[in-house]
Design a protein that fits this description.
Layout lengths: L1 H16 L6 H27 L15 H14 L7 H27 L1 E2 L9 E2 L3 E2 H27 L3 H33 L7 H9 L2 H7 L4 E2 H4 L4
Antiparallel strand pairs: 1-4, 2-3
Amino acid sequence: MIREIAQQREKENALNTGHGPLTLYWVFWLFLIAGVVGDLVEVVFWLVTRGELTSRSSLLYGQFSIVWGAGAVLLTLVFHRMDQRSNAQIFLTGTVLGGVYEYICSLIQEVLFGACFWDYRHLPLNLNGRVNLVFCLFWGAAAVLWVRTVCPALCRFVGRIPRERGRRIAMGAAAFLMFSTVVTAAALGRMERRREGEPALGAVSRFLDAAFPDGVLHARYPNMGILSEIGWYD
């Protein structure tokens, strides 16, 4: 009974104020929605600006951007209930935080996969090709939009989902994303080892070579660059 009352109050709070509590349930839903929507936004942006329909997903299975999803979680954790702060404060914090976040994401990709999924060296005011001022300013604008509009709207949407149904959907999505992440990491790691000349000695390596050859991976990640090939260290 007490639990049901607490859940009802939590739901009413989200519907009335547009803010959900920082529980794993709410944060994961924001991660999930932002990851899917962010991937679609990038696909549309690429189509409009370059006339190309191309994959922007972080994973081999599912249209999902880990960078967008994790970025939404970061914005939520940092800017939760910052309605009283000025737009200038939110913008400046988002600009700095977004630049640091993007730089760290680039480093993680290098360490795990020996590859980069974006390269800003052709743009002015970049830092080691990992971040540049223009996109940092985009992060600042995104922080203001997130605090003022997007996060409250998403919290109201999640608050309208029946809790038990929402939990089942979240658990299923989490299991699928975990599976896709493991497969993606294994396939990209095996691609790097192939480039180093390592033969497929085990059943797993042979499966990865057959299921995810370089052509398949480059079709899924058309903007991926191998560090040794693009002269990242030059």
